[in-house]
TrEMBL record:
Organism: Paracoccus maritimus
Protein task: Converts GTP to 7,8-dihydroneopterin triphosphate.
Name of the gene this protein is made from: folE2
Pathway(s) served: Cofactor biosynthesis; 7,8-dihydroneopterin triphosphate biosynthesis; 7,8-dihydroneopterin triphosphate from GTP: step 1/1
Superkingdom in the source lineage: Bacteria
Protein name as annotated: GTP cyclohydrolase FolE2
Length: 319
């Protein structure tokens, strides 16, 4: 009886090396003819890879003596290109290879744009995008005790080329405390009219700022932190002693804020910065009074304008 399959060697050949002619003969289904396309013959806006991780070196903002430092952070990278309707697919490993070719450089948007150019050319795509996500540490002083600790900021940087236009975008999460102005007034009313001890409710809150960077001047991550602190100074604290906790209570009482106030306060600072173009601010006050969150979204310019919201737009903001 003839066996269904020939007797194949089952041992892994660790000595085998693929030469150029061997690689040329390997099947490549993703670059096959249009007849292999499954489903609708439609263009795809984003196709690529998400969350491949590697260490990237970032520069910190120079201090008063004009000296800057470097920090290496684990970074999650998403890279995509667009795909014409008559093309089967892409070789996704080319995105990683293009990015790795630039990964040893000290990070800058120019490096990110060079990586984008490389894999856009490698994959013969008309649109392309790279997004890098990481958590950036900044040393923060306590309010009164003289202690300090590391505050971490979730940041994403993105370069997008769409229909010949290139955008540089930063996404930045800022976590703060929000004291309800209404609750504060009601608490004071109880004290004044009935001599009743009452405390206003406040909660950990988060704002996600997405902004198009414009012009030649660099926006440092430290600049974004300071911008947010000017808008809403009640940033959550790292190292706290009793005098710091008291100071934070006073700071909150001096800056009560509704979620509508928060997005407008951030917008005011963003509009005043000449390095920032279109932007979007999303805020979520994760209520201690209610079992739901109070949320708000403010958009300036067409880049982030949209009629429909992703179902996770607000749910994705967790402080």
């Amino acid at each position: 009886m003839v066996p269904a399959y020939p007797a194949l060697i089952r041992d892994y050949d660790s000595q085998f090396r693929a030469d150029e002619s061997y690689r040329a003969g390997l099947p490549d289904l993703q670059n096959g003819p249009a007849s292999l396309i499954v489903g609708a013959r439609a263009p795809i806006q984003h196709v690529g890879i998400s969350n491949f991780r590697l260490p990237i070196r970032y520069q910190t903002r120079p201090d008063s003596s004009h000296r800057g430092g470097e920090i290496a952070l684990e970074t999650s990278v998403t890279g995509t290109v667009s795909l014409d309707a008559d093309r089967k697919g892409i070789n996704m490993s080319r995105i990683m290879r293009s990015f790795y070719a630039h990964s040893d450089h000290l990070f800058s948007l120019k490096v990110l744009e060079a990586a984008l150019d490389d894999y856009k050319a490698d994959l013969d795509a008309f649109d392309a995008r790279i997004q890098m996500r990481f958590s950036y540490p900044i040393r923060v002083d306590s309010l009164r005790s003289g202690l300090s600790g590391w505050q971490y900021y979730d940041i994403a940087q993105e370069v997008v080329e769409h229909r010949g236009d290139r955008l540089r975008i930063v996404h930045f999460d800022y976590v703060y405390s929000s004291t309800c102005p209404c609750s504060l007034e009601l608490s004071e009313h109880a004290r004044e009219t009935r001599s009743r001890l009452a405390t206003p409710h406040s909660q950990r809150s988060v704002a996600r700022i997405s902004a198009v960077m414009k012009g030649p001047d660099k926006i440092w991550f430290e600049d974004l932190v300071e911008l947010c602190r000017r808008a809403v100074p009640t940033e959550t604290q790292v190292m706290v002693k009793r005098e710091d906790e008291q100071a934070f209570a006073e700071l909150n009482a001096s800056n009560p804020i509704f979620v509508e106030d928060a997005v407008r306060a951030f917008a005011h600072e963003l509009q005043a910065d000449p390095r920032i173009g279109d932007f979007r601010v999303i805020a979520s006050h994760q209520e201690s009074l209610h079992s739901h969150d109070a949320v708000s979204l403010l958009v300036d310019g067409p880049t982030f304008a949209q009629a429909s919201l992703d179902p996770m737009t607000f749910a994705g903001l967790r402080a």
